[in-house]
Design brief:
This protein is an all-alpha fold. It is 72% helix and 0% strand. The chain has helices at 17-50, 68-87, 96-119, 129-160, 166-197. Helix 1 packs antiparallel against helix 4, helix 1 (17-50) packs parallel to helix 5 (166-197) and helix 2 runs antiparallel to helix 3 (96-119). The protein starts with 16 loop residues before the first helix and ends with a helix.
């Protein structure tokens, strides 16, 4: 049995382990976020189907209704941030910083809009089953988006640093873009259920 390699075998260069770990870790983190928010999806379906004493939407003269304008603005900011961050992989590395700053600004605008919505909501988590799902889902979404914004800010700092490897920078840009894309999917589902279906 011959154990030598044939002469036409191409050596495969192993990618940087840190870049591979960032890509893999971001996928695992994004999946965990999706499963986390799946609990609110099922809470919405279960509590709406259960509709105990007809109080899904609240008391007879008090039906919690969040502002649709806030919902649309938050949705546009999150989807725009995800699109810019995900598209940053396709542009030249010199443009990563600009794209990441734009994505960060939109993500922080979404967090600020969610905070502004909470201050003018007019209901709390104990006002109805719908209200509890709305406050829990949107509040924790804003917290997750704030954490992802912090990660995005660290990626911006790393992209501007001269000493980091290009493969690691590309993996970091790709990773945070992927996580923002999953969060955008969660926000689309939240918008459909919490603002349209109710």
């Amino acid at each position: 049995m011959d154990t030598t390699l044939p002469p036409n075998t191409v050596d495969v260069v192993e990618p940087d382990p840190l870049a591979r770990n960032i890509r893999t870790g971001s996928r695992i983190w994004a999946a965990s976020e999706a499963f986390f928010f799946l609990a609110f999806f099922f809470a919405f379906l279960y509590l709406r189907a259960l509709n105990t004493n007809g109080l899904w939407r609240g008391w007879p003269h008090h039906h919690p209704s969040p502002s649709l304008a806030f919902g649309i603005a938050i949705l546009l900011c999150v989807v725009g941030s995800a699109a810019i961050a995900r598209g940053a992989v396709l542009v030249a590395p010199e443009m990563w910083r600009v794209a990441m700053w734009a994505a960060l600004a939109l993500a922080l605008a979404a967090v600020g809009l969610q905070s502004a919505q909470f201050s003018s909501l007019g209901f709390g988590p104990t006002d109805a089953a719908y209200a509890s799902v709305f406050v829990g889902w949107s509040g924790l979404f804003a917290l997750f988006l704030l954490g992802t914004s912090y990660w995005l800010a660290t990626v911006i700092g790393d992209v501007t640093r001269a000493g980091s490897l290009p493969e690691v920078r590309a993996a970091a840009v790709d990773g945070v873009g992927f996580v923002l894309l999953v969060l955008a999917g969660v926000e689309i589902a939240a918008f459909i259920l919490l603002y349209i279906v109710k």
